[in-house]
Amino acid sequence: MDFALTPVIALCLFVTGIAAGFVDSIAGGGGLVALPMLLSVGMPPQLALGTNKLQGSFGTFSAALNYIQKGEVNLKESAMGIVATLTGAATGAWTIQHMEAGFLQGLIPLLLLGVLVYTLASPDFGDTQRKPKLPTPVFYTLCGLLLGFYDGFFGPGTGSFWTTGMVLFLGFSMTRAAGYTRVMNFTSNVVALTVFIALGNVVWSAGLIMAAGQVIGARTGSSLAIKNGSRLIKPIFITVVFLTTARLVYQTYL
Length: 254
Known about the structure:
The chain has one domain (7-253). By secondary structure, the protein is mainly alpha-helical. It is built from 11 helices and no strands. The model has no long low-confidence stretch (mean pLDDT 91).
């Protein structure tokens, strides 16, 4: 089926962008909403992946900006993480052009399952700010390089790993972790998007329509997350981790 942008498809993409931006700004996982829609309207996989990165970048930028403006994120504090993530994502994006990501497909669902079990077993996970277990520069350097590489190389669950790491090792609340995660996601998204653009794998018309919805959804979702804190973020986070894990298990083992 060849992709053709009709008024009905454009409306569906716009609405999907709102939903994806809303979910992603709170707990990540917007691709679980956006990518199936892009594929369902007849877009070939590589174009769908590139277009998804385009529209998702607008959403993560909108959400990150809102968290920054509301005082939940300090860019100076996260500067080292941004640089490390940029470096890792560029390396991962280059590496994926030369080898397959298949070996990660069996490992990542198990790691995400661990995140899910730990979150469910910790009733107060991310409810309040706590004492960090790692120095901030060490955490951002290690996780920026590793998760940046992973996002550029493979991707699913990156936001969940960032949020969990920030809560566990930096003592962040879920709200603060959600804000800093969006900044890191935007950084690695831009790197991956640059690769897709260079390869010509982006449908700009569809991506920009979804991007308009993403901006609306991300702004709304991040505002609600800031207002309601972990009581809103945690159940959505758990749902997103569960769905991401289920999708990867289905793709890998079934």
